[in-house]
Amino acid sequence: MEYTGSSYEGDYKNGRMEGKGKYAFPTDTKYEGEMKDGMFHGQGTLYFPNGSKYVAKWENGIAVDGKYTFADGLEFDEPEWLYCDGYDRRFFTEICDGLKPAGRSQLTNRIPPRDIPEGCYDTGDGFYNPNTRVIVDYNHKFLRNADDDEHAWIIRTCRKGWDEIVGYQAKPDV
């Protein structure tokens, strides 16, 4: 595990991770639960660095039944997922705590929203610099390079780190 940057603390059987244990990935994602033959097997939870978690039943390293809960407590429920659909675009905190007064728009589900570096975009898991096409986490550690599709999606949909005039603009007198 020293080669991958991972660590394990827990039960072993025949030199393999088996029983209850805690497995830590180099990305700061952590698993706590049951293991069998070196794989997640039985009940276990993945804890993500952003505060979200995935509680699941695992079979031979594959999640067969589980529930994802976002850091703010919102639970993902696929058959009845109505959050941020075409009809209701409120953030989960707005659903729980009500809307802000007029003129105080809530830009993200995080209060206060993150400050985005100038020229960058907030991708939800970090910041994107369109010049270098690099996405870094919120601690400025490298996450990934954006391919053409992700680049286009970020430019089209994500919050920007700069002000931009939108709407009607009168043409200057010539």
From TrEMBL:
Top-rank taxon: Eukaryota
Pfam families reported in the protein's UniProt record: MORN
Localization per record: Cell projection, Cilium, Flagellum
Repeat keyword on record: yes
Any one GO CC term of the record: motile cilium
Keywords assigned by UniProt, alphabetized: Cell projection, Cilium, Flagellum, Repeat
InterPro entries in alphabetical order: MORN, Morn5
Protein's name in the database: MORN repeat-containing protein 5
Organism: Acanthaster planci
Gene of this entry: LOC110975813
